[in-house]
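thought: fold this chain, then report.
action: predict
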Amino acid sequence: MRYNGGDGNRERAYERATEPPQHYSLRSSTGQASPLFKGEHWGWGESEQMRENNMETMYYNPNYNQKKHLTLRRKLRRKQTRAEAVLWKELSNKKFLGLKFYRQFGVGQFILDFFCPKLKLSVELDGGYHKKEDQRVYDSVRTGYLKGEGIEELRFQNDEVMSGLPRVLEIVKSVVERRLKEIADSITHPPTME
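observation:
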Protein backbone atom coordinates (compact mmCIF):
# COMPACT_ATOMS: atom_id res chain seq x y z
CA MET A 1 0.00 0.00 0.00
CA ARG A 2 1.37 3.45 -0.96
CA TYR A 3 0.58 6.21 1.48
CA ASN A 4 1.03 9.02 -1.05
CA GLY A 5 -2.22 8.15 -2.77
CA GLY A 6 -0.50 6.42 -5.66
CA ASP A 7 -0.60 9.50 -7.87
CA GLY A 8 2.97 10.76 -7.39
CA ASN A 9 2.09 13.50 -4.90
CA ARG A 10 5.11 12.74 -2.78
CA GLU A 11 7.50 13.16 -5.71
CA ARG A 12 5.88 16.46 -6.76
CA ALA A 13 5.93 17.71 -3.17
CA TYR A 14 9.64 16.92 -2.98
CA GLU A 15 10.30 18.79 -6.25
CA ARG A 16 8.38 21.84 -5.01
CA ALA A 17 10.19 21.82 -1.66
CA THR A 18 13.63 21.81 -3.28
CA GLU A 19 12.89 24.66 -5.72
CA PRO A 20 13.44 28.28 -4.70
CA PRO A 21 10.28 30.39 -4.34
CA GLN A 22 9.01 31.94 -7.57
CA HIS A 23 9.89 35.53 -6.63
CA TYR A 24 13.57 34.53 -6.50
CA SER A 25 13.74 34.17 -10.24
CA LEU A 26 17.06 34.57 -11.99
CA ARG A 27 15.30 36.77 -14.55
CA SER A 28 13.69 40.10 -13.88
CA SER A 29 10.16 40.95 -15.02
CA THR A 30 11.70 42.48 -18.18
CA GLY A 31 13.32 39.16 -19.05
CA GLN A 32 16.89 40.29 -18.43
CA ALA A 33 19.19 38.44 -16.06
CA SER A 34 18.88 39.97 -12.62
CA PRO A 35 21.88 40.70 -10.37
CA LEU A 36 20.77 37.70 -8.33
CA PHE A 37 22.12 35.63 -11.22
CA LYS A 38 25.52 37.20 -10.60
CA GLY A 39 25.54 35.72 -7.10
CA GLU A 40 23.85 38.25 -4.86
CA HIS A 41 23.98 37.42 -1.15
CA TRP A 42 20.37 37.21 0.04
CA GLY A 43 18.88 34.30 1.93
CA TRP A 44 15.46 32.86 1.20
CA GLY A 45 14.05 34.67 4.24
CA GLU A 46 14.98 38.19 3.10
CA SER A 47 12.14 40.38 1.90
CA GLU A 48 11.82 41.18 -1.79
CA GLN A 49 11.88 44.92 -1.07
CA MET A 50 15.20 44.51 0.75
CA ARG A 51 16.66 42.68 -2.24
CA GLU A 52 15.41 45.27 -4.73
CA ASN A 53 16.86 48.17 -2.73
CA ASN A 54 20.34 46.68 -2.61
CA MET A 55 20.60 44.49 -5.69
CA GLU A 56 23.08 46.69 -7.46
CA THR A 57 25.37 47.09 -4.48
CA MET A 58 25.55 44.00 -2.32
CA TYR A 59 26.80 41.03 -4.25
CA TYR A 60 27.58 37.68 -2.73
CA ASN A 61 30.33 37.74 -0.16
CA PRO A 62 30.74 34.62 1.97
CA ASN A 63 32.18 36.79 4.76
CA TYR A 64 28.94 38.75 5.20
CA ASN A 65 26.45 37.69 7.91
CA GLN A 66 27.69 34.18 8.45
CA LYS A 67 25.00 31.93 9.87
CA LYS A 68 27.15 30.90 12.84
CA HIS A 69 26.92 34.49 14.19
CA LEU A 70 23.16 34.90 13.69
CA THR A 71 22.22 34.31 17.34
CA LEU A 72 24.84 36.76 18.58
CA ARG A 73 23.80 39.43 16.05
CA ARG A 74 20.18 39.10 17.17
CA LYS A 75 21.19 39.30 20.83
CA LEU A 76 23.24 42.45 20.19
CA ARG A 77 20.27 44.06 18.42
CA ARG A 78 17.99 43.34 21.37
CA LYS A 79 20.52 44.54 23.96
CA GLN A 80 21.71 47.72 22.29
CA THR A 81 23.16 50.58 24.31
CA ARG A 82 21.36 53.91 24.65
CA ALA A 83 23.87 55.53 22.30
CA GLU A 84 23.27 52.81 19.68
CA ALA A 85 19.50 53.34 19.97
CA VAL A 86 19.89 57.10 19.50
CA LEU A 87 22.13 56.74 16.45
CA TRP A 88 20.02 53.93 14.98
CA LYS A 89 16.96 56.19 15.13
CA GLU A 90 18.80 58.56 12.77
CA LEU A 91 20.28 55.90 10.43
CA SER A 92 17.37 53.44 10.14
CA ASN A 93 14.81 53.22 7.33
CA LYS A 94 16.94 55.22 4.89
CA LYS A 95 16.41 58.41 6.92
CA PHE A 96 20.04 59.41 6.61
CA LEU A 97 20.67 60.70 3.07
CA GLY A 98 18.51 57.89 1.65
CA LEU A 99 21.17 55.27 2.44
CA LYS A 100 20.40 51.81 3.78
CA PHE A 101 22.27 51.02 6.99
CA TYR A 102 22.15 47.69 8.81
CA ARG A 103 22.87 47.25 12.49
CA GLN A 104 24.90 44.42 13.97
CA PHE A 105 26.05 43.30 10.52
CA GLY A 106 28.57 40.47 10.30
CA VAL A 107 31.75 40.81 8.26
CA GLY A 108 34.05 37.84 8.69
CA GLN A 109 34.42 37.08 12.39
CA PHE A 110 33.48 40.65 13.38
CA ILE A 111 30.08 42.23 13.98
CA LEU A 112 29.77 45.87 12.97
CA ASP A 113 27.47 48.21 14.90
CA PHE A 114 26.19 49.95 11.75
CA PHE A 115 27.08 49.14 8.14
CA CYS A 116 26.17 50.64 4.76
CA PRO A 117 27.04 48.04 2.09
CA LYS A 118 26.63 50.51 -0.78
CA LEU A 119 29.50 52.63 0.55
CA LYS A 120 31.31 49.92 2.50
CA LEU A 121 31.11 52.20 5.51
CA SER A 122 31.06 51.05 9.12
CA VAL A 123 30.08 53.25 12.06
CA GLU A 124 31.23 51.93 15.43
CA LEU A 125 30.30 53.16 18.89
CA ASP A 126 32.78 52.53 21.67
CA GLY A 127 31.94 52.27 25.34
CA GLY A 128 34.31 52.47 28.29
CA TYR A 129 35.66 48.94 27.79
CA HIS A 130 37.35 50.03 24.54
CA LYS A 131 39.93 51.90 26.65
CA LYS A 132 41.38 48.64 27.98
CA GLU A 133 44.65 47.56 26.39
CA ASP A 134 43.48 44.13 25.17
CA GLN A 135 40.37 45.70 23.63
CA ARG A 136 42.51 48.30 21.84
CA VAL A 137 44.62 45.52 20.34
CA TYR A 138 41.46 43.68 19.24
CA ASP A 139 40.07 46.89 17.71
CA SER A 140 43.27 47.52 15.75
CA VAL A 141 43.22 43.96 14.36
CA ARG A 142 39.58 44.42 13.45
CA THR A 143 40.24 47.78 11.75
CA GLY A 144 43.06 46.20 9.73
CA TYR A 145 40.80 43.36 8.61
CA LEU A 146 38.01 45.75 7.59
CA LYS A 147 40.48 47.94 5.71
CA GLY A 148 41.59 44.83 3.82
CA GLU A 149 37.95 44.22 2.86
CA GLY A 150 37.70 47.80 1.55
CA ILE A 151 35.49 48.93 4.44
CA GLU A 152 36.06 52.36 5.97
CA GLU A 153 35.46 52.48 9.70
CA LEU A 154 34.29 55.50 11.69
CA ARG A 155 34.59 55.30 15.48
CA PHE A 156 32.79 57.41 18.04
CA GLN A 157 32.55 57.26 21.82
CA ASN A 158 29.10 56.64 23.29
CA ASP A 159 29.43 59.98 25.09
CA GLU A 160 29.97 61.80 21.79
CA VAL A 161 26.69 60.44 20.44
CA MET A 162 24.74 61.22 23.59
CA SER A 163 26.03 64.77 24.01
CA GLY A 164 26.76 65.82 20.42
CA LEU A 165 24.63 63.84 17.96
CA PRO A 166 24.46 66.64 15.33
CA ARG A 167 28.27 66.80 15.23
CA VAL A 168 28.51 63.00 14.85
CA LEU A 169 25.96 63.05 12.01
CA GLU A 170 27.85 65.88 10.31
CA ILE A 171 31.07 63.83 10.39
CA VAL A 172 29.27 60.78 9.00
CA LYS A 173 27.69 62.96 6.31
CA SER A 174 31.06 64.32 5.19
CA VAL A 175 32.50 60.80 4.92
CA VAL A 176 29.40 59.59 3.04
CA GLU A 177 29.72 62.44 0.55
CA ARG A 178 33.41 61.67 0.04
CA ARG A 179 32.68 57.95 -0.48
CA LEU A 180 29.87 58.73 -2.96
CA LYS A 181 32.25 60.99 -4.89
CA GLU A 182 34.90 58.25 -4.94
CA ILE A 183 32.35 55.78 -6.32
CA ALA A 184 31.17 58.26 -8.96
CA ASP A 185 34.75 58.98 -10.00
CA SER A 186 35.59 55.29 -10.26
CA ILE A 187 32.56 54.74 -12.51
CA THR A 188 33.30 57.67 -14.82
CA HIS A 189 37.05 56.96 -14.91
CA PRO A 190 37.47 53.17 -14.85
CA PRO A 191 41.01 51.85 -14.50
CA THR A 192 42.81 51.28 -17.80
CA MET A 193 44.34 47.97 -18.79
CA GLU A 194 47.79 48.34 -20.34
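thought: worth noting. Residues 1-5, 16-57 have pLDDT under 50 and may be disordered.
final: C-alpha coordinates above.
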